[in-house]
Protein 1
Amino acid sequence: MEKIGIITFFKSYNYGVWLQAYATQKFLIKNGFDTEIINYTNKHDDKKLRYIYKEGNSKKGYVTSFFKSLLFGKVRYYNKGFKRYLHRFYNLSDQHFTDVKDMESLKYDCIIAGSDQIWNPQITDGKLDEGFLLRFGNIKKRISYASSIGSSRVREQDREVFKQAFKKFDAISVREEFAAVELQKFTDKHIAVVCDPTFLLNKNEWIEFSRQNAVMQLSNIKYILTYFVSSDKYTDRYTNLVKSYSKAFNLPVYSIQFSSYYSSGCDKKILGASIADFIKLIDNAEIIITDSFHGVSLSLNLQKNFVSLENRSNPTRVRNLLGNLGIEERIDMDIMRYKQIEYKNVVPRLEKMRLDSAEWLLNAIKNE
């Protein structure tokens, strides 16, 4: 049996990173591969998981990070929702790494980088992370699956970095057409566009995972669910739209959060939910309103009605996904234009995307 290592984001205040990591691992195990996630957190992310760190790269950041953690429970809810389930939901390497230099002795038959924005330097403290470019280890085969550069064009200083790194890759795929066009300039290898790994698991698999692992108890009360990751979540654009839906449907608003900080228009804060609870909350919601790519992805996969508020700092990936499925009108859909999604038209496209992507990944692993 081939041994596969996955290197990706999976420790963050963000449900998307946890879900995509779990899905990649689960899909590979289901297909017979001995798979583990390399327990790697780059130094930039590692410091943000502490109670106190230099937030915003300024000295006063030590104070603001501490009070956010202390007063609003940010670290406490992270530990409740994720850390305590770390070894239950993930197969991890024995050693924890924060420096790519310490991973030189790692050996795998195949290593997979991705998914998520692993090639977006804005996410990794202003520079590309060499770990996510697979520049380490005794590896027989190097593959990128559904990696993303976000919505930014490749910077001048990163072009040669990609060019040299891609020479050692055996197969490369990304999550957006935009990324494929940008990165194809730096390699002769074909760059494929595949779906996010959360789509590698189907609706029934996600619901079964939630059924077995969710601990949150929900009443029979119907609700609108919100999950926001953009700093725009406190703006009138967000709060007014949520309030208009709540009023029109006469439903309370449940908000998934990592911090107990005030949310305008929210009737109930969901704090410290696990990824299994996250799936359960989406599956039981009447409508999901989100600016998160993975909030949209899971809503689609579970065939739920949703509205996608455009994350203006990173709009490309959601537009690309919804455009491919023929439902780009869900973006910023106000209450006057609201209609239910005709999933009979969406599901066939979604299934083709899922099957094509699964086939690409399995072929990339197995081909010599």
Protein 2
Amino acid sequence: MLVKTLLLKQLYIRRLIGEQYCENIDMNLKKDAIFKSNNLDYVIKNCNLCDLSKSSKEKILGLNGAISGIVFVTLKPILPFSASEVMIKNIAKNIFNEDSYSLFSMIKCNTNASIADKHIYICKEYLKSQIDLLNPKIIILFGEIVARHILQTEERVENLRGRILKSKNLLNKQKDFIVTYAINDLLKKPSLKPLAFDDFKIAKGFLSIE
């Protein structure tokens, strides 16, 4: 079922960027050629590949700070003027001394619906393409679910945080990651903030020697 869904996704995106099917469809489609298209933003905004799009108010593309080497990744979109956005801005400015950074979510739909693995499987190729276009120095993952899907690990966040992790499972290129607690957990549990601060300091130290 998953293979069929991914194939449908690729065919749908090819149609969105203008391809027409006049011949037999190549069942071995190369997804990299699709997602590096200049029409990526358009494709994301018009995606209807899962049921989340039915309850979504809009698609959130995220923030592309191309000149920054830092990418923050959350599970759900970060809305403008929200407490989550304020927290990430403060992290970037007060810890990393950066006004420019990139912020993307695994799920692009702005919805209150529950997020299931099937939604992430469909949506995470968009995230991969967004990050591929930037080539960041460090990627900061907020939360266990994000880490599980990007790093392909079942480890708990407590066992992943506190060190630089190298992986190429999602991006097909080796990248450097820091895992910390989910944004919502940091907002609801102030006791986690000092631990997350330690994670960010490790990331900052890593950037200083790059």
Protein 3
Amino acid sequence: MKKTMKLSKKGQELINLYTNMVETGVKRIDGQKNPRVFSEFGARYYRVSLKKGFDLLKIKSTLDYGCGGADWMLDGFEPETNVSAKEYFGLEECYRYEPARDIDERQKVDCVISFDVLEHIFVADVSNVIDEIFSYATKLVVLNIACYEAAALLPNGENAHITVRHPLWWKAQVDQIALSYPDISVLLIASSGYLQAEAFPIYKAND
């Protein structure tokens, strides 16, 4: 069940800019050029807490929405055992969606996970994107959102974190959409800096 979501003109322009960055690299605020862009596996840093939630809700399938270069099948996700994310979390199916890399495996799953994505979405498109994320989940939505400016710049000179807002602003956006999906549990993690994050208590609108 793939949905066709219409982005604003600015939103579509951003997709094109991110695609360009994947192909040519990213320029940083300090003037340096990084050839590897959107390649970090953000879920790795929260794996212990995520696994507890996955086990509790018996999560067996995931969709990584805006996955960047993350590969759930690749060994090395968990450094001590060198296993993949799929094996570490005990998953049966892992799917990915990354329009900037022409990856589209969107479908219904137990859990949709989206790390460092929503701050890259133009503000007028935020609610539609959050709604689409929820629409693919049957049990759990995990969102990690950066609430600070990025070190990277878009090719047009704008900051790569195009929508920087307070964590409570994001909480309000998510809460509004969650009302339409009352049986879906939500874990919202807001980052105030690189690897500096606070998680809101996991909840469902039905609660």
Protein 4
Amino acid sequence: MQAHQTMVAQDGYEVALFPLEYMRISQGEGGSTSHQGSYAIDFLGWGANGRVLKCPCYAPVTMKVVYASSGTYRIFESVDKVHLADGSLDYLTIWFSHCDDNSPYYLGRIINQGEQCNSTGTNGNVTGDHTHIICKKGKYTGQVQVNGHWTLRGQSHCYNCLYVNDSHSK
């Protein structure tokens, strides 16, 4: 997804798009490290010429901030139901961690699809600049600790929620 990109299906509902221009995974789901027991994925900022620090992430759908931590992460919920990558029509909840400046993403703020909603960063317990993304189909229902790590209650795989394509529609 690119800055200001939007995608609305013929039925008028937005399509949930992958929030970065390039997909570069630095840590996948599960495993024996900080994602153990969760569907979280870490993504590096990447561009046509390689690594991008403080890489912008864009709102995959029009969404509002429903949880604002004291610094390291924000949780967003779609304002309306959206088309998810598994073919369902539901609300999307998405968690972003490690942005170095979360101040513009205050509780209740609405961010339109395609507007910047986060960036990769080093805020919190990290080993380098990246963003940590967790998705959930449906409305925000809180957080739960799994194997000593926090995740969304009722978490979903990112690939079931976010469409990845090469479109550049606006």
